[in-house]
Automatic annotation (TrEMBL):
It comes from the Bacteria. This is SRPBCC family protein. InterPro entries: Polyketide_cyclase/dehydratase, START-like_dom_sf.
Length: 161
């Protein structure tokens, strides 16, 4: 088993108040609807700060991975969300994410910045690192582009009621 990881960072301004953006980004049902390849988010033991993410099957270098991971969510309303991979009860999760969102009020709405690192433990040699990272980055790009489009739509729906 080898641990592979890749990171992304992004930022931009959305035409919504920080409170509205916050409301959307802290709602697991909305996150699920907005995020391509995400099947569901469950609150572990009903806890608002512990989310279990279940994604679709993802092809990675001749094999498929079904990412499922638990994240500790830390909310500093209304400016920051941090999340850390935190498997529960001795469960071994071979995928996980570490990341953050930062919301800053600006004249035209909210400056939204994010950074995240995805890791996956796979039965592949280290020599496969460039190919695996490339595949991971491509999947993250697809998810990110879809999420961005869907976030803008969701914020527009929130604004217009």
């Amino acid at each position: 088993m080898h641990r592979f990881s890749t990171s992304v960072a992004s930022d931009g301004v959305v035409s919504a108040s920080p409170d509205t953006v916050w409301k959307v980004l802290t709602d697991p049902e909305r996150i699920t609807r907005m995020t391509p390849l995400l099947h569901r988010i469950d609150l572990v033991d009903g806890r608002e700060d512990l989310w279990r993410w279940q994604l679709a099957t993802v092809p990675v270098t001749g094999m498929t991975v079904v990412p499922c991971f638990t994240e500790r969510m830390r909310f500093a309303e209304p400016t920051r969300i941090d999340y850390t991979h935190e498997p529960q009860g001795g469960t071994q999760e071979r995928t996980g994410v570490e990341g953050w969102y930062e919301l800053t009020e600006v004249t035209d709405g909210t400056h939204l910045a994010l950074g995240l690192t995805v890791h996956a433990e796979l039965p592949l040699p280290r020599l496969a690192t460039p190919a695996v990272r490339g595949a991971m980055h491509a999947v993250m790009g697809t998810i990110g582009a879809g999420f961005s489009r869907n976030l803008v739509r969701e914020l527009e729906r929130e604004r217009t009621g």
